[in-house]
């Protein structure tokens, strides 16, 4: 999987913008970062909640690992070369849902409720 495919998917979600975040690219919904991509383009960081994070770690250890910020786990680091594209796109969508305001979530999900973990 390539960062260009992730960019295309992320930018297809409502109200997403891409902005620099230090030397990384970041994808944001109303100012909140839900995905970052470092310049090497070999992996991405996806900021999903604990429930989605733990499930992905258990099911896809070949390309998913914990993303730590100090002692805290804040999301997932996804290695792109072995990654399953549909799984990555689903995780990116879940990260978007987690960061998007409730009204925007409802618009995107057709009114379905989603937890913000």
Short précis:
With 117 residues, this protein is α+β, with helices and mostly antiparallel strands. Helix content is 37%, strand content 31%. It has a six-stranded antiparallel sheet with strand order 1-2-3-4-6-5.
**Strand count, sense and closure of the main sheet?**
6 strands, antiparallel
Assign the CATH architecture. Alpha-Beta Complex
Strand adjacency order, main sheet: 1-2-3-4-6-5
What best-fitting shape do the alpha-carbon axes yield? Answer: globular
Kindly identify the CATH topology. Aspartate Aminotransferase, domain 1
Uncertain parts: 111-116
Task: Furnish the topology, listing elements before pairings.
Blueprint: H1 3-12, E1 16-21, E2 24-29, E3 32-37, E4 43-46, H2 50-59, E5 64-69, E6 72-79, H3 85-99, H4 102-109
Antiparallel strand pairs: 1-2, 2-3, 3-4, 4-6, 5-6
Question: What report would you give on this structure?
Answer:
- Helices cover 37% and strands 31% of the residues.
- With 117 residues, it is of the alpha+beta class.
- It has a single domain (3-109), classed as Aspartate Aminotransferase, domain 1 (Alpha-Beta Complex), CATH 3.90.1150.30.
- A six-stranded antiparallel β-sheet has the order 1-2-3-4-6-5.
- Mean pLDDT is 92; it is low at 111-116.
